[in-house]
Amino acid sequence: MSEILADYNNYDYKGIFWQDREYEDKSDRRAIQLLLPKKAKVFIDIAGGYGRLANEYLPRNYGKVIIFDYSKTLLADAKKEFGDQVETVQGDVHKMPFKNGEIDAMLMVRATHHFGDLPAIIKELSRVLAPGGTLVLEVANKKTVAKMLKYWRGKSDINPFDRKPSRLKELNKGDFYNYHPKYVEQLFRDNNLEVERVLSVSNFRSPRLKKIFGHKILAAIERPLQRPLAPLRFGPSIYYKVRKVK
């Protein structure tokens, strides 16, 4: 089995991580509402955990809904919450237990920052995606305005203009990876995936802004700006809607 960079077994991901992240949650949901296809025979939420985003895709016209994750603990929580509405599958995203072209639509949010080998991940996603199928993928952005400012001021030695992935180390949290949009978009082209739409998400992710405006107001400001800011690849989360070329 490939290296697992984040193991959320026996970790209260919902209660601990998502505390005080209402703005980010609302921002994710807005993007998903705009990008997910209306119908699919087989849909999978990759690294879907406890089903945080399930209420965004369960009402859609999907024949089968799968939540896929490495954590048995989180999948048990998802099954307890959504029952027969979802099928849960445990496994490693580097080598998923699905046939070539088996999945019509897939979603992967807040996972790429754990992957040191994104090319291998994109290749695997393309493998299981059906020709003409849709992938909605969130990517941790290396080239944000905030990171550019920190670099120019000498407060960071990570060059946001360099297309190579950056590796960040946080105490007791392991490694985190950020990716340049041009690097990611080349991976799509290399794997027969065509970008159809892009959104810039969580554009105002800042403890200071949350304190000043509050989560609900900040989310309301964010809502109309995800599309206009997309050409700039502005935010810390870049959402891609890509199609597997037939």
Structural class: alpha/beta
Strand order of the largest sheet: 3-2-1-4-5-9-8
How far apart are the first and last residues' alpha carbons, in Å?
A: 30 Å
Range of helix content: 25-40%
* Pattern of helices and strands: HHEHEHEEHEHEEHEHHE
Instruction: Work out the helix count.
Output: 9
In the predicted model, the low-confidence regions spanning at least 5 consecutive residues are: none
Give the averaged pLDDT, no decimals: 92
What is the multimeric organization of the chains shown?
single chain
Number of strands: 9
Radius of gyration (Å): 17 Å
**Backbone shape:** globular
- Largest sheet geometry: 7 strands, mixed
Provide the β-strand percentage band. Answer: 25-35%
